[in-house]
Design a protein that fits this description.
By secondary structure, this protein is α/β, with parallel strands linked by helices. The strands form 4 sheets. It has a 7-stranded mixed sheet, with no helix packed on it. The chain is globular. It binds zinc ion (ZN).
């Protein structure tokens, strides 16, 4: 039996303090021991020994809001006209960047993740474990209707990460259609968004009935619905209708936050994307500039308030991959953004590991370092509780193991 042992300080993300001078033992793909270094632990003679005594071992990071769509730029016209082969190459590149930065799982919130997952299972590409929504569904003139100058049918065919459905029966069909293509969960859009040409992020999209039908179909498949909602109207409706995860979730009222707590929803604030949009606002198309100025300044306060109230949060940067910005692989920036709005570093880490595992529907398998779980772990060359920003730099991540396989070592 293949056995490995890692000597390091341990952040197990269960809520307990750092275990100094710790030891993690792995057999095949599972953790069998996590705790203080035990001199008398029965190690096999041929066990692989990793000595990281001055470093920190923690669960593999979980990127809970990403797009394996290979967009290539922040201009939605490019999303429509970029050839699919180039998109695939970009997504493969992005997966590699995520894994090297310590992400061992990723939730694809509209992208090519279903097919990429198949290719990964065939051993053709490397990257984090993928859970994908396939195409995100919105109403006509909603956030999935990315470029309204073209016929909607053309946009959907050329931009396979977006789908449109109107009325309860089309919503039912489109939900089933995503499952047919391999979706692990469903992503919908209950407000407009920033990047498309026509929608307004301040307005509520989809009726209660339309959302409820999608939730019913997802439940029947044993899974859940995530919604893109950038303002209160779209969050409240969606939570009432049974949606599990709230993507963005800005400008929420206290009443909505109460409801999210009652229904045990998980919010993914994606503040990194907002910060990056604001930093580059002057370079954006005019209609996008106006929407950035409408949404972004109001995002931080409501996320801080929801966190304060106890809403469960997970970590997703929502970066659009781009050869020019090179943000992919710096997704750990989101932990720093959360610390800026009031999270302790440990809360940010647990959001990125333990809470992310809930969204991956793998709480029993990943998200904390505990005996019996899968060996998804990383080693960081400094204490992230003292410097959370080290998690946004792939150089700090010196060792990555996914399901017991060493993916990076230096
Ligand atoms: Zn997104």
């Amino acid at each position: 039996m293949k056995q490995s042992v890692i000597y390091a300080n341990i952040i197990d993300a269960t809520g307990r303090d750092v275990i100094e001078n710790g030891m993690v033992v792995i057999e095949e793909k599972r953790l069998v021991y996590v705790g203080e270094a035990e001199k008398n632990y029965p190690l096999a003679e041929d066990a692989a020994v990793y000595d990281y005594k001055n470093d920190y071992v923690m669960p593999g990071l979980i990127e809970a809001h990403s797009h394996l769509a290979g967009y290539g730029s922040g201009n939605t016209l490019d999303w429509v006209v970029r050839p699919v082969v180039e998109k695939v190459c970009q997504a493969v590149h992005d997966l590699e960047a995520l894994l090297n930065a310590g992400f061992t799982s990723v939730r694809d919130m509209a992208g090519l993740g279903c097919r990429l997952r198949t290719a990964m299972n065939q051993g053709l590409i490397r990257g984090p474990r993928i859970m994908s929504a396939n195409a995100a569904i919105s109403q006509t003139c909603g956030h999935s209707d990315v470029w309204s100058d073209f016929p909607a049918e053309m946009v959907q065919e050329w931009e396979p990460s977006h789908a449109i459905a109107d009325g309860a029966e089309q919503c039912r069909w489109q939900t089933r259609n995503q499952f047919r293509q391999g979706a692990d969960f469903i992503k919908i859009m209950t407000t407009g968004g920033i990047m498309d040409t026509a929608s307004d992020p301040g307005l509520s999209h989809y009726t209660y009935e339309e959302i409820a039908v999608i939730v019913e179909e997802a439940k029947r498949m044993g899974t859940y619905v995530a919604t893109h909602a950038e303002s209160n109207a779209g969050v409240y409706h969606a939570v009432k209708a049974g949606v599990t995860s709230i993507e963005h979730g800005y400008m929420t009222t206290d009443e909505t936050i109460e409801l999210m707590l009652e229904k045990d929803c998980i919010q993914i604030p994606t503040l990194s994307a907002m910060t990056s949009l604001m930093a580059n606002v002057d370079t954006m198309q005019p209609h996008v500039q106006a929407k950035i100025r409408q949404v972004v300044p109001r995002a931080y306060e409501s996320v801080a308030r929801a966190h304060e109230a106890g809403v469960k949060m997970a970590v997703g940067a929502d970066y659009l991959s781009s050869p020019t910005t090179g943000l992919y692989g710096k997704n750990g920036n989101e932990l720093y953004e959360l610390v800026k709005v009031g999270f302790t570093p440990m809360e940010a880490i647990m959001s990125c590991t333990r809470n992310g595992a809930l969204l991956m529907k793998m709480s029993d398998e990943i998200g904390t370092l505990e005996a019996g779980k899968l060996a998804d772990l990383i080693v960081v060359n400094q204490n992230p509780l003292k410097n959370i920003q080290c998690l946004s730099d792939a150089e700090s991540v010196i060792f990555v193991m996914k399901e017991g396989n060493v993916e990076k070592e230096k």
